[in-house]
Structures
1.
Amino acid sequence: MLTSILSPMVLAFLLGIIASRVKSDLKFPDSLYQSLTIYLLIAIGIKGGHKLSLATFAEVWQPSLVAIGLCCTIPLWTYWLMRKVGKFDVPNAAALAAHYGSVSAVTFSAALAFHESLHIPYEGFMPSMLAMMEIPAILIGISLARINTSSMEGVTQVPLKEVARELLAGKSSLLLIGFLVIGFLAGDTGWDQVSPLFDTPFKGVLTLFLLEAGLVAGRKLSDLRKGGAFLFGFGILFPILHACIGIALGHFIGLSMGGATILGVLASSASYIAAPAACRVALPEANPSYYLTSALAITFPFNIMLGLPLYHEIAKMIYQIN
Amino acid sequence: MLTSILSPMVLAFLLGIIASRVKSDLKFPDSLYQSLTIYLLIAIGIKGGHKLSLATFAEVWQPSLVAIGLCCTIPLWTYWLMRKVGKFDVPNAAALAAHYGSVSAVTFSAALAFHESLHIPYEGFMPSMLAMMEIPAILIGISLARINTSSMEGVTQVPLKEVARELLAGKSSLLLIGFLVIGFLAGDTGWDQVSPLFDTPFKGVLTLFLLEAGLVAGRKLSDLRKGGAFLFGFGILFPILHACIGIALGHFIGLSMGGATILGVLASSASYIAAPAACRVALPEANPSYYLTSALAITFPFNIMLGLPLYHEIAKMIYQIN
Amino acid sequence: MLTSILSPMVLAFLLGIIASRVKSDLKFPDSLYQSLTIYLLIAIGIKGGHKLSLATFAEVWQPSLVAIGLCCTIPLWTYWLMRKVGKFDVPNAAALAAHYGSVSAVTFSAALAFHESLHIPYEGFMPSMLAMMEIPAILIGISLARINTSSMEGVTQVPLKEVARELLAGKSSLLLIGFLVIGFLAGDTGWDQVSPLFDTPFKGVLTLFLLEAGLVAGRKLSDLRKGGAFLFGFGILFPILHACIGIALGHFIGLSMGGATILGVLASSASYIAAPAACRVALPEANPSYYLTSALAITFPFNIMLGLPLYHEIAKMIYQIN
Amino acid sequence: MNNLHLLTIIAEDALASSIEREIVGMGAKGYTASSVSGKGLHGVRDNQWEGENVKIETIVSEDSCKRILGHLQVKYFDRYAMIAFYHPVHVVRTTHFL
Amino acid sequence: MNNLHLLTIIAEDALASSIEREIVGMGAKGYTASSVSGKGLHGVRDNQWEGENVKIETIVSEDSCKRILGHLQVKYFDRYAMIAFYHPVHVVRTTHFL
Amino acid sequence: MNNLHLLTIIAEDALASSIEREIVGMGAKGYTASSVSGKGLHGVRDNQWEGENVKIETIVSEDSCKRILGHLQVKYFDRYAMIAFYHPVHVVRTTHFL
Ligand SMILES: Nc1ncnc2c1ncn2[C@@H]1O[C@H](COP(=O)(O)O)[C@@H](O)[C@H]1O
Ligand SMILES: Nc1ncnc2c1ncn2[C@@H]1O[C@H](COP(=O)(O)O)[C@@H](O)[C@H]1O
Ligand SMILES: Nc1ncnc2c1ncn2[C@@H]1O[C@H](COP(=O)(O)O)[C@@H](O)[C@H]1O
Ligand code: NA
Ligand code: NA
Ligand code: NA
């Protein structure tokens, strides 16, 4: 566990939180944040595509089905829980469903780094799972809101097809999927040309990004109270549950222990790049304090600090017992 | 040819075009574009200077003369053709002459990457050709407009000397020439200090830049019709012609096949960083739809996708036949 | 000396000066400058922390005391000299004291690069000296102004405690100290994860930063006259004096020759990131033309071009004679 | 009336392209846009995570101004962080804007 | 009075957060801020080394406007690079700003 | 007259430094500039490849305002993407601007 907590990435995240609590004037320029996001998405995509080109279809189809199944069902029970137990209104429940069904590319990268630092192998095609799991849940979340809202009078809503188109053409899936394809097509020659930029310094860039994430998470900490104890509990317990399901399914379909853990991490992670952007436009009635705070200030730090080592232990249990 | 088209750079350019056609919200922040430009110019310059320091004057003087000769004559016949055949007015013909006489640093870099991936050697001092060929054509283009415009009444024009000064002090030639000198002076020690930033990740950065170039080119595609079939044909045939002349001259003065091909690529390429900036100020009457569309959306993609392998074949012919 | 002057960093600084003298349109976007600053501070901090983790307390405590002693006394005599000999008013004298007592992270990095290129060893914990020396002098400078100003009527001054808090939470010390701790805690595994971003390309990034520094220094050159001959002489002679004191003290407490020289460089350098930011807010009556011009346009270029080789020679004398 | 007004709209940046399209559709001959941050009833909007604002300025006739404001009110005002205000301005070439 | 004014403050960027806090404390219901460069009596302010400016715009009642201007004058005007100006504007929902 | 006006010029960014120099030469005591994008008769200007716009604001006397506008019209208006407009403003210290 120390390995995970004392990694430069996690420490940078903590430093970011501290910086924002002591009201530091440290601020990443907008365009640096945007550039880091572009870099991370490209780097994850192209490496994944390269690895995918080394895999066979037989290896990939089962994990893909499971991944899509996960991200389509998680929003359903999340929405139900939010409505019934959390007493949230429709837009907020739907937004939370979208966020927890979708995935976090940064948590995913932290999981890869965690496994690499422990020298645990995992399937190279995992980034394609990430790419597949990003969008469906967001669409389902938004549809849930549409279905459950008695005709909003006077309000011209964006048609769902349009939302789907915008999500697919949206920055994050376009870069992820686009560079997955590029990495797939470019072969070893291509990979050698770009890996000095997109692979070698990757963890350093991730460290930078997590510093910025910490800055924002720190500001959101004061919003925690608004969400209340329920959101806090949910933001920790549900990811654990999802991780367990993901690991168990991974084990069932024969993934390596590393691969199954990473599938669990994907299931457990909540989106805070693609989903908030989509919800701001398609679910403006939902309050960002809820979904952003729980995704970024509860689930994300929990996952990268305590979740990763925990899921790793759970995976060890599952793989040794059986 | 596949090697060229399936390189990550070309694929990234295509992805950029797709992104802009599907109206993706992917956008590079302005300052990322500017930073990438600064990086590329410095990297090309300093590597060229380092390589130049390993060359002798005897090797360099002939290619330099040819390079300057090329970029001074290309604008002349381009202007003539645009006026007589293309029926463009004076400012637009002059602007097109400036763009096609000048050179594209990114096309140049793609040409180097192409040769490296095929393990074809070329003269290390080629970047100094790039630096020499950038400005003269722009000045000639602007002068052509001045000479052929019957005194513009009332309009206070920037004196040509001032334009020349601004071009030389302009970002792109200042960085190219400045870092050429720095690379030349800094020696091996200096090169070893900076090559991990300016050399190792270069092709990755080029990939990023081409993604952004594709985004812009994609938007310009809809302007293609404005230019009409003439501009389209010109934007492909003239570069081929210029490449042939460049390769032939390179062969004539004894360059290696790689060096001659790269000289051909320089001749064939059209500027879309320095020239548009200069024309916007000095030839405001010229319509950017013409010069930017043809340079960026026709000639540039043609060159990096089909041109490079084509010129390579042409060079092989010239070097084997003779 | 040539090694120092012909390094890409120094040459890039000179190119920046030339660019601004010829009124080039070369301009670094604000966010690139900010990103470079963030990068440099993190890189210096994390590498220093990593090296510090390899040192023992016994090695570190004496140099630390000397470093703090230096940066607390330098502002005192600087203030006195500025008031008595320079005839500056209280705010300007205090601001200059703050700047020269504090340190320059970039000069420091240039000193490390200088020693590395000559293969001269130095103590790895030197960056912690840098981190310690940054803030005290600024606080002392501001206090000097407060003490020596007969109650400013009507003006509500920021309390000194608040100034201290803001300085500690300020970008530059937060990143330096924060990443010093991170580098210390992250161990070899952590260092290996991030060094491809924060170590390998460091000197290249420094080159970029110095290009930008040159652009600003060039603009400030025209302000030199305002400061007059006194400021010019002070900006060169005092750094030499401080360097000598630093080297002698370093020798006295048993630092290696490299370490002593770097301590001298720290003493001699003047801050131009943290100190100007603090003085603009806490000493708005002080004129930036004085402190920024002397720190950035006199002392900084003198130090990296002539100072480094000079201090090296002085250190050789001190270490050989004794 | 031919009185020209400078109409300023400050809204969530995600709405920028829709608003720009719509005001041109309703008679604006051009617009000028820039990135801003801000605070209002919907809280602080000053970072890319939670979203920032766009400021869209357009010089339009009084008629178009009213029409655009009416449209914005119906489509956006209740659901998004957004304000709009206007005041008369003098321009150099009136025809440029009509 | 309920007349709304657009009050614009252009000041050294280091002052941004204090000014924003203070105008909200003195009755402004919101503000919009952006980075600008400029030139004035304190010289050119167009780079991060020497500092740039922030432009803060707030729509406030005439009363608050006067109060804010009074405060700025006492606290900042003599010591910092800063200007402020205002003019009346029409808004869509007056209550949003009061 | 001593009435102060806020004169706003929106023009191709390549013209920024000339315009700034010239308005100071014609009586402006300062100006504030920022990067903007936009659309107008000359098409969309929202990226660095094709160029963006600069917005220059200056508070000047009515006289200077007229003089500057006259100059801009002669030198730039027919050849470059550019608009300019002005309206009266109240300032805190009138002398700062005269
Ligand atoms: N009183 C105000 N003055 C200036 N700008 C405002 C004001 N109120 C709101 N804004 C801007 O409009 C945006 C949306 O406002 P709101 O819908 O009140 O959150 C804010 O983020 C601010 O940028
Ligand atoms: N006449 C003016 N018109 C527009 N902006 C101005 C004017 N004078 C000053 N400014 C702005 O206000 C800032 C501070 O002004 P000053 O205190 O005069 O240096 C300048 O950097 C400009 O951005
Ligand atoms: N009606 C308008 N309202 C606001 N800004 C405009 C308007 N028309 C033009 N502009 C701005 O002025 C620039 C140049 O205008 P133009 O010369 O019409 O292309 C445009 O890129 C816009 O930024
Ligand atoms: Na998930
Ligand atoms: Na050419
Ligand atoms: Na010092």
2.
Amino acid sequence: MINLFQILIEGSLVGLVYGLVAISFVVIYRASRIINLAQGEVLVFGALFLWTFTLGAQAAGYPLPLPVGIALTVLGCVGFGLVLERFVFRPLIGQSAFAIFMASVALLILLRGVAQFVWSAETRPAPTILPEGALQVGPFLINTGLLIGGIFTLALMVALQLFFTRSRHGLRLAAVAEDHSTALSLGISVRQAIAVAWILGAVVATFAAMVLLSGRIISLEVAHIGFKALPVALLGGLESIRGAPLAGVMIGVGEALAIAYLDPLTNGAASGILPYVVMIAVLLVRPQGLFGWKKIERL
Amino acid sequence: MLPTGIHFGTYAGEAKILKTRRAGLWAAALVAGLIALPLASGPYLLGVMTHMFITLMAVYGLYVTVGMAGQINIAQSAFVGIGAFTAAKLSGYGLPVWVIVPAAALVTGAISVLFALPAARVKGFYLALTTLAAQVMFPIVILALPMDWLGGLVGLSVEPVRLGGLTLTTPLHYYYFTLVLAAVLTVAAFNLQRSRFGRSLMAVRDNDVVAEVMGIPVFRTKILAFFAGSLFAGVAGACTAYVLQFVTVSSFTLFASVWYLGMLIVGGAHSALGAVLGVVFITLVQEGLHGVANKVVQAGAATSGGMLFALTSIALGGCILIALIFEPRGLAHRWHVLRTAFQLWPFPRS
Amino acid sequence: MHTPSAPAKDVLSADRLCLRFGAVEALKSVSLTVREREIHAVIGPNGAGKSSLLNCLSGFYKPQSGAVRFNGADISALVPHKRAGLGISRTFQGIQTYPSMTARENILTGYHLRMKTGLFSALLYWGRVRAEEEAFARRAEEIIDFLELEERRHEIVGDMSYGLRKRVDLGRALALDPKILIMDEPMAGMSAEEKGDLARFILDIRDGLGIPVVLVEHDMEVVMDISDRITVIDFGQVIACGTPAEIRTNDAVIAAYLGGAQQ
Amino acid sequence: MGLSLSNVDVVYGGVIQVLRSTNLEVPDGQMVVLLGSNGAGKTTTLRAISGLLHADLGEVTAGRILFDGEDITNGDPATIFRKGIVQVLEGRKVLEHLTVEQNLMVGAHARSDHRAVKTDLERIFGYFPRLPALLRRTAGYLSGGEMQMLLIGRALMARPKLLILDEPSMGLAPILVEQLFEIIGRIKREEGLTVLLVEQNARAAIAQCDYGYVMDGGRIVLHGSREQLENNQDVQEFYLGFSGAEERTSFRDIKHYRRRKRWLG
Amino acid sequence: KDYVISASADYSGPFADVMPNAMAGINAVADWWNKAVGDKLGVKAQIKIYDMRYDAAVVAKTWPAILSADAPIAHLGFGTPDLVTLMKRLPNDKVPMIMGTAMVGLVWAPDGWHYSIRPTYSHEFAGLFADIQEKSGKKLRIGAISTQNQAGFVDQVNGIKKLAETYPDRFEVVDVQWAETSPVSLSSNLRALSSAGAEILLIGGTTAQVIAAAKAMEELGLSIPIVTSTHNGLYEVAKGIDLAKLNGSYAAFSFAPPARADLPLRDVFEANKKDGSWGLITAQAAAQALLALRMLEKAVAKVGADEVDGEAMRAALLDNVFTEEELLGALPTLDFDDTAPFPIGDIKASAEIVQDGKIVPVGDGWMSVPALEKW
Ligand SMILES: Nc1ncnc2c1ncn2[C@@H]1O[C@H](COP(=O)(O)OP(=O)(O)OP(=O)(O)O)[C@@H](O)[C@H]1O
Ligand SMILES: Nc1ncnc2c1ncn2[C@@H]1O[C@H](COP(=O)(O)OP(=O)(O)OP(=O)(O)O)[C@@H](O)[C@H]1O
Ligand SMILES: CC(C)C[C@H](N)C(=O)O
Ligand SMILES: [Mg+2]
Ligand SMILES: [Mg+2]
């Protein structure tokens, strides 16, 4: 029993990390209607910015205090978002979702190349931002880093949710997420929305990188997490900030349970397949994901 | 609209793939060129071309499922893999090639139907998730099956094609083998475009709600879209198996699926011509850059090579982006516009 | 001119349809009968439930209760494409064409149910397939001719103007070889002259082909001129049903819908 | 000042020319109506003004569009919007998944006078009494006419200087059509709103307008003041539905042989 | 006379990070050999590097071109994609392929033209396990973490299962946990492994897995030594984690530990390198190239400087024994035949261990690998 609860706790904490990456997906979609397949690469970029302004700067002889490093990282993300808007997505405003989706595929290749070019493919350490070790709560052990990350994910979710649904700016972004042309006709700057989307997306992805990689290694291969988070974002609903962490927890717990109870019976196949089975089952009941916008069909 | 002077006496003439005599001549020249190519090229080019033909087949399939029917599929590479394993397995029983290739197509089609079922309810990008599931499950399932079924970890080796008395072994043989199949599938893909079946797919893509009310059985059509698309993937898979002579799960990755999709979109998802242009464009850019980079490394100019290959990624991604920004509806659309402009010059049309 | 002779029989009828969307009651026990060779108009204020009623007839909405009958048979359980197969064809409010196909392809999709070739024969495109495509291309051309779309037959519908798309929509509906034609606001977006043409089309369809027409329309001049009977719906209920002359003078209808626009 | 188009050409996709040397003027405080058959280029004209051609790969290739003396040719839609030009698109483009209320608020997104926004909302409810009941509904599920009301309301929420309406009466019940033009006329008079109107309900539109243009095949083929238009034979026949006689011909009696007579040019 | 030896590289795939060093190793050894040996024999070995992206499809496409343009006498392969795509056709193409990475059991086939300087990963692990077991004298309880859909990683575990099966009183595989290649957390897995009683942990997959396992152990207060391989070895791991936390962990392989006190190959590299730095992967690639060059030497001796071709190269490999000395101390004495794609007879392994936060070789000789049947 204790074991089961421990598995649930760990599963949810890991799930919240998936959720955090998924939020970075959703933020971009929710503000600009762009499905970004390159989100894993964006996360790697965030991680590399972080490295540059912390350990990298230190190695180069300019040690910066961690908060300053993080602030500079966020600034880096802002620049990153602006550049992407200006050179990649601005010309594609109003184009089919397909074309924009493809642009993200191109970006995937491009960003990978740029990261390799600028930082080289070498693996490097990530700064330790979250405390290591674990918290003993009664009979349970809770990973401190993941716990803080999880709490942060939930707080971020609430904040972003309020931003998108309550603020006037959020309303504008919602209009852009509906349809570029309609938003344009309402005098909403789609460019601005896209820039905001990518800045937010990059910042959230960087936060995710901090939780995910704190005290570990940064390599270009980390980008795989993007493909892990895509289904989570879809399960939560592409338009829904709050769906992402919930979906993440579902997947995380499902995976943990499968690892513990089914993998021994199936020689490891279950934990790979189960999350997808769960996701398809949920989608059959709610085709728009848990909290996504229901597709409106009228005649 | 066709320029002045081209008119059709019959509806058949209008429905032709190559509408004018000149188009026919160009096509004939292209085919002749491809047949003659081995005379003038080294095996590297042949290898690239063979690979390109196979990719083309897979992308035709994607054109049917995604381009025509609008059902997102990011598991095409898994379907190609299913075709490859089917062909490999069947070749082990000594079946002739003209049984194996159609069988690979049909088996792939049948399996794809399984993953198409959610399309009844799940729409748009969410469908990507169910196909993603197919892509993820593909290696896991093959690895979990008993070794002697599909080779598990080891993979399967493929008996070479025997045609009459001839056993195909050299790259040249497989160049012609895939060329013929690619040509057949090209005609098939263009045929779909102008037939009742193709129109029903396009109707479902454009507006599935209306299609249902206007007499098109939408669910069945979506399933058939996956089935038809996977037929092409199955043939591509069989060719892959023959050309590689050995199939393992590791050759059929999600990344390859994404690439297939990329080629289709860069070329233009709304016409079979788009599939051709996309495959040719991306293959050219990819191989060109790669070739140059390899040459530079061998020349010793960049001894360790890391930077150089990073630059090729940048250039490749950049090329695709530029193609998209320049023509978001795909190269096929741009081709169309250019041709129109050329034919109408100097008068813009109203 | 059309003169009703022997007692016309009902072709399509809706019987006490009730339709709810959550708290919204779109239809509260609406009944409607369409007779042979009749142009039957349905009018009513915005949001009254007219389109919902048509959607129930064509099967897109499933009413919570009530029945739809076609030529005497209960078709309430049939899915939309089956109903289309019986010959219930329709046009739509707003734009509902297939935007990335050409005008002629749009019309040809209407013949889907009449054509036979399937996937494998399509891949081959040989002999019978070719002959069939040609035969139907010819029939599509008749419709193109009828709707004066000749110059635009190969134009992508998504690039067309609003009014042209509505014509393509009508062409597709005609291609179903309908036994009854349901039209939702066909006149919207047409100029007076085009409305005249369209009214002529509708009368031709009825007179020439003998198919009844259900017409939802806000243009009272057209409705009063060409319809044989009118049903008025308000807040999901039928408030009147009768000939144009009767409706024109019905107080409830004037209050709810016509207002002073009707001299 | 107002709006003026001089010799504007519009080309789609680099090859399809739709507008040819269009000249059009909308003086401040006036209502101008633009008539024309399907495919004449009316919507294209409006999109050219509000800068929305880009998404359709269209472009103004020649000529100039001036608003209050400023050149807005091929401008950025957001900038043009902020100058006070607000357009109601054809095709019922509501923001489907947002509620009616949110849709209305999006209309006012660029305004900072929050209190006035509230009163404007009330005013719009006055024009369209059906709207208040729909506030919490998802806009995508409204009926056709309800959407149309919402669109016009949304445009008014922006407090435009120049309101551009593309077939506003489409799909509205007769009472509402009548009221709509009255309302627009009233706002125009009371608040000095400038209006450019494309409308197929020519009778109602011409009755309210100050000046009118007729377009065909991408060109302006006729223009004149309200009286001139009302008395013009062709306008009467093609747009008002009279065929020479005083009485309107019944739609039942339109003859088969009557084919479209095309404008010269 | 010039002979081409082609080489696969992975500059744009998962091993892009180690590639510059690996290729530097190959280039440096080739340069040295040309000067020290080739000149005397009148032959020159030319290395041609091709980027294969660690992708089977790229290999399949590029190989015919290499054949025709370069007519290589041998190919230096890198990783599983080269193996699975080329092993079936090499006998026809008559080009032997020399691998620097260890083999995986799935290519353990007789009569091949693919040979590795190393046995399978499982052999290498087995050598280390046997060493540990012998020292302790107790039965060794092994746990493993691996990735399900990576054939090579699964194969490593299968080999170890075979080991336990063959020597049931010496080894036991208590539990295998399947994880992703970049796992978020391995806490659950480690808890399961520790409750299953694992005394040593085999992680032959990725560096990220090793680090995640170390973090999880820290969290759970465990300390089980980890056994890594070369591609995720201690040097790689050290980039992301303080080595002190991994005290007692190993990397197992079968060429000379790069930090071995007396290692002639290292001196050769340092003297001839143009770029790159010495390390595990450099050592591996250098040793790989060295074997190919020694093959060329023996082939020249047999057929003459002008007549060397792929067949002669393979014959040279099979007919000769390559001594540790010839191989500059980088490899134990190697003997090949056509029953297996790796050295036969008494297979040797080597290993490194972390002691006080430093990587040191385990012992200064070679460890014997217990005999294993093909699994
Ligand atoms: N799918 C749906 N979900 C929720 N509400 C709906 C749906 N369809 C229609 N409604 C509501 O039902 C009512 C009737 O809608 P309907 O479209 O039938 O009106 P209508 O009579 O066609 O009006 P109009 O003349 O304006 O087109 C409206 O209030 C509408 O908002
Ligand atoms: N995106 C586009 N690409 C190519 N051609 C277009 C495009 N949009 C419109 N057209 C063409 O431009 C012409 C004018 O279209 P427009 O929409 O301006 O007409 P309209 O006067 O508004 O007609 P309606 O009354 O039917 O709405 C039409 O012939 C149409 O086919
Ligand atoms: C174990 C493998 C996945 C890794 C190794 N470098 C190889 O490919 O041979
Ligand atoms: Mg309606
Ligand atoms: Mg228009």
